[in-house]
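Minutes, methods subgroup
Present: GH (chair), OT, SY

1. OT presented the first of two proteins processed in the latest run. Sequence and structure tokens recorded below as shown on screen.
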Amino acid sequence: MDFTEIDYLLNLARIKISDNEKKEIASDLAKILDYVNQLQQVKTDDLEPMAGGTFLDNVYRADDIDAKHHNLKVDGYFKVPPIFE
């Protein structure tokens, strides 16, 4: 990776680092980009896209509203029962 690109990114982020740190970042970014290139070589033509990482469905509990705790506000804040006594 070219140092002009790293300098540009550092300028955008308003970060100042030493030349040794720039060399480390250049090496790390080169490794990341190489890995991305490897991932682009993977054949995914026959795979169906997923909306998430699993086919499981979320299970939700019903929201039960307790009438005695509904709309209890004190000075604009919600009043909740104490946890500790």
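2. SY then presented the second protein from the same run.
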Amino acid sequence: MSVWLPRIARHIVLSLLAVTILLPFAWIVLSSVKTLPEFFKFPPTFWPQAPTLEHYAYVLTRYDLIKRFYLNSLIITPISVVLTVSISVLAGYGFARFRFPFGRAIFWLIVLSLYFPTNITSIFAIFEMTSAMGLQDTKTGLILPYTALHLPIFLFVMYTIFKQIPRELEEAAYIDGASPFQTFFSIMLPLAVTGIVVIIILAFTAIWGEFLLARTLTTDNAMPIGVGLTAIQTNMGDTEFPILAAAYVGAIVPPVLIFAVLQRWFMRGLLAGALKF
């Protein structure tokens, strides 16, 4: 009993936490397939009595505003992720393997920036810069801040990963005649792939769901789906909630798909210590 009671208690607590997290999501999914009269029925029903996909069809075929917001996110997020991951991998490898003037000082200044609320304190400066450069309400005006703000944490992750890879592997490649570029792309990148997958998933979810910066820098043309849904919700009210629920489910799908496809490498990266700072 002394062994089983703690396990049972732990599983009960974890199950309650899982239900608490998943219940709102389940309610949104089920509401998206309810008819409008059933949604406003009192007392409310959890399971839909006459499921319908007409709200999804409406969002996909007739609601052009939501489609534009969705397209903005599908452009802004992948480009920001590619830039963030590419720079983080290259910079992390450079700081981990090369020595150059003020290299250590620059690296630790970047690390120290993690302890400051840059997402809040820098938002005014970012707003002024994007306004001066004519990038307000543009995709570029979001891609550049997203890339810069997420670089410190992911650079530190990649630095830690490359530090854990033995230098003897690179030295053996040099002895065999491999160039620095061949060594990096053929040996170092494959060994660091689990960590790269970890930062891809973290960067995608962070940028896709970001709200404060997107709400500040966009008004209409470049507005992503997260901000766009809150903007149209105030105009639609509760009468169109099943349609909004369908749009919310559609906004959740890309991060879920990314994690579903890459979860094997993600868990392998966590177990291998990709997030041990």
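Chair's summary of item 2: The mean pLDDT is 82.
Next meeting: continue with the remaining queue.
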